[in-house]
Amino acid sequence: MLERIVKAYNEAVFETDKEAAFEVVEAALAGGLTAEDVVFKVVIPAVEEMMSNITKDPDANLAQHFMTAQIAAEVTEKMLLKFQQPPEIIGKVVMGTAHGDLHSLGKRIVMGCLKALMVDVVDLGVNVPAERFVDVAQAENAQVIAISAMMVHTATGENGASKVRRILHERGLEERIKLVVGGAPYRFDDGLYQTVGADAWAADGVNAGRIIVDLIRGIKKS
Amino acid sequence: MTPLDILVAAVNGTPAPRIPVFCSLLDQGARELGMSAREYFANGEHVAAGQLKLRARYGYDNVWSLFYVGKEAELLGCNEILFADDGPPNVADFVIKSYDDIAKLEVPDDITAHPAWQETARCLKILRDEVGSAHPICAYLTASTTLPSILMGMDKWMELLLTGPADVRDELLRKCSDFYRKEVAAYRAAGANVLIYSTPFGSTSFVGMKRFQSLVMPWMQRDLAPGGVDGVVYYCGMAPFNNVIAQVMDELHINVHYISPLAELAEAKAIIGNRGLTCGVIDDIKMIHWTPEQTRAEVKRLCDIGKVGQHFLLGTGVMPLGVPEANIRAMLDAAFEFGSYP
Predict the structure, then answer these.
(1) Do B154 and A104 count as a contact with CB atoms less than 8 A apart?
(2) Domain A2-80 fold
(3) Which value does ipTM take for this structure?
């Protein structure tokens, strides 16, 4: 039965059909699955499946990324209310768009996926000064700072990720807080993330979730 | 032959000494005139002067009437633009904050009477008078399915497009399509003759093929129906779209395609063939850190693929300010060298 549910849910997400995805979830609950099962055995595997599809399938598109994240976040939010006990949170990320950048779509996709992956997100919104990223990450004990930039000058400018790297270095935080970047300019130049001093980059919002989880685990292990 | 003649020859596949070479230097104009971005873009004479100086300095073929993409939002009521001296201006205040605002959104009856159009008109007049007889004048026009992203923000538009009420979505699309029709007529009347139809949702990198065919294509047909496609260039904001070129040619009759640097140029050229113009585009984000030699090698590669059988133009994306002058020169020198016909 679980296999059938997962397949139906994945198809709905792939077709960006939110209504159908929720119907699958309702039917699964009615059929005896717990809220925990829905999140850990259906939603998270679906996000992971989409991560792998995006990498393999050249026709994967932004609408699928967006709906994967939105559906995952909404289902998870609903299911969390029904959990027997609060789930274990993997870690915390502070996220926003680079200084001067007002494009919030990428951030929203990443946040949706992270919610389903049990990562706490502190959303700083758009046009965030570099100091604020670091101040909040320090205050919140976050393991990762994630910066989204959709324009070349906000991705590479001196007030964006490069400045965050400089502040992390000055404050001696580089071993405790990792820096990840994403957004269109990085897709056109896959070495750009190193130029701006980031530890990692993600080619899309869905895979950003996996990369952030890996960075959090790396920090916790060390 | 003038650069305009060379462009026409490339479209038609008639003899010419070289390929057309387009370069999009927009924000560089402020630096060229030694002023801030805010000051530069406030005045159409500045923008025209910047374009003319840049074209004269580097020798490429085209000039631009585009100030910044948010100009279209200003024509629809946006009052706040965030200027930066190291990159393009951004829309800082969305005209549509809730679905109720869609009903209130007004498309001006006469775009050319709108205060936000006046500086564009002034810029176009200067460009037309100074170089219009010899050089292509480019204009940038956003398709109905993409314009909402600068009116309400990309994520809110995605939400409405994919999950919102269809009647609200269609009301917004209808208004955006009406706007496009008026805008393209205004640009044509003012002398623009290369009309970049910016339609990122016309790429299946944005929406799947099913939605492209059922939703995006009909709205593009509506945008383009009254004015036709003369001078129109299909452009998806640097997203790849090779898999829809044939449909766009058959159903929209647009034969000029501005290919993404992320797509296979040879594949695009094979699809378009001698039915239109393939525009090969260099990855100008990589040009920020490439050496002049790397830039030159990439131009050669693109010309080697595209030049065969003519019907080819070499162009750039919206060249970032971070691209060194040496690379701009290397790109253009190589384009004229490797883009020459014997």
Answers:
(1) yes
(2) 1.10.1240
(3) 0.89
